[in-house]
């Protein structure tokens, strides 16, 4: 397993206090190059989808995506927060194109997710440099301690979710998650967060990865959930998707693909 260089207790104390933690240089540049190729491959394969909408329903037949979320460096980070028995709940690229990338309005993830209990952690992997100019994630530190508020529709602006939290958010309280490619921001399901539109000349792409302990149940009428994959430790309570096999010519080639599946 990859060594976690940060002090685990300090990390958990910060996470409990603020609702988020940033880890620098988690993923190497070679893998980030493959992630970039994956985003381009997905957009070519699914021209009907905006870059902000490359979501978990595409995962069951995508070996590279499953390989990526299975990376030990990411699982080691997840283990700090949810323990050694790990499954994937969901993963989603939010790739905001230059000049036209949509905002993500203020929200709490826990308001949307069919999980019992709401034991889950999000790892946000930076694929591009993420800055205030190109619409980086913004979080309200400490807001995870105040429960989960209702959501409301917002049709006044075109946004990724089409919804927003039904309470006023003090913009001045928000912190910008400035990240470089390969950095990972980890956040709590109850934290209030969002991001502005990308009006800059630079794309802003990140991959959200939602890990759950295998004791958390995914509540669905049609199991298995599209992105439910058992990744580490005991399998727990959920049915899972089978790991997709790599087929040359059908899937994105990647390092180790010849031995995948």
TrEMBL record:
It comes from the Bacteria. Keywords: Dioxygenase, Oxidoreductase. It holds the Pfam family PhyH. InterPro entries: Phytyl_CoA_dOase-like. GO terms for molecular function: dioxygenase activity. Coiled coil: none annotated. Gene3D superfamilies: q2cbj1_9rhob like domain. The keyword Oxidoreductase applies. This is Phytanoyl-CoA dioxygenase family protein. It comes from Tenggerimyces flavus. The lineage of its organism: Bacteria, Bacillati, Actinomycetota, Actinomycetes, Propionibacteriales.
